[in-house]
Amino acid sequence: QHCFVCGKSGATILCCKMGCDRHFHFPCAKEGGCITQFLPPYSSFCSQHRLEQTVEAAPEENTTCLICLDLVEDRKCYGTMVCPACKHAWFHRGCIQAQALQAGYSCFQCPLCRDRDLFIPEMLLMGIRIPFR
């Protein structure tokens, strides 16, 4: 199978949306805007069918990422995420992924409100890998 991101053969991940035949390599997922969930049933979605956060929130003007302090986009998107609990903590996907890898499951929480009950399941569904260390 050919990867829809890089065009090379050997793509083994298939979008789990019924009727979608897009394949991609795991390393190409981030570049292609794909989401791979790291909890059972380990579903993967192409950029066209990926899940979006259901939280009804929009960042205020000049909102910065709580981790890197750079401006975030003016809406939720693949690269910009929000905490589902407090709805005020905005961050870049790459920043929260780096925090998750550093903290591990036992210490990972919202950087603002410190919620874990809503935050961790939402991050797992949105493709953030949280290692058990």
Automatic annotation (TrEMBL):
<dbReference type="GO" id="GO:0005634">
    <property type="term" value="C:nucleus"/>
</dbReference>
<dbReference type="InterPro" id="IPR013083">
    <property type="entry name" value="Znf_RING/FYVE/PHD"/>
</dbReference>
<dbReference type="GO" id="GO:0008270">
    <property type="term" value="F:zinc ion binding"/>
</dbReference>
<dbReference type="InterPro" id="IPR051188">
    <property type="entry name" value="PHD-type_Zinc_Finger"/>
</dbReference>
<dbReference type="GO" id="GO:0016874">
    <property type="term" value="F:ligase activity"/>
</dbReference>
<keyword id="KW-0436">Ligase</keyword>
<keyword id="KW-0479">Metal-binding</keyword>
<dbReference type="InterPro" id="IPR001841">
    <property type="entry name" value="Znf_RING"/>
</dbReference>
<keyword id="KW-0863">Zinc-finger</keyword>
<dbReference type="InterPro" id="IPR034732">
    <property type="entry name" value="EPHD"/>
</dbReference>
<keyword id="KW-0862">Zinc</keyword>
<protein>
    <submittedName>
        <fullName>G2E3 ligase</fullName>
    </submittedName>
</protein>
<dbReference type="InterPro" id="IPR001965">
    <property type="entry name" value="Znf_PHD"/>
</dbReference>
<dbReference type="Pfam" id="PF13771">
    <property type="entry name" value="zf-HC5HC2H"/>
</dbReference>
<feature type="domain" description="PHD-type">
    <location>
        <begin position="1"/>
        <end position="50"/>
    </location>
</feature>
<feature type="domain" description="RING-type">
    <location>
        <begin position="65"/>
        <end position="114"/>
    </location>
</feature>
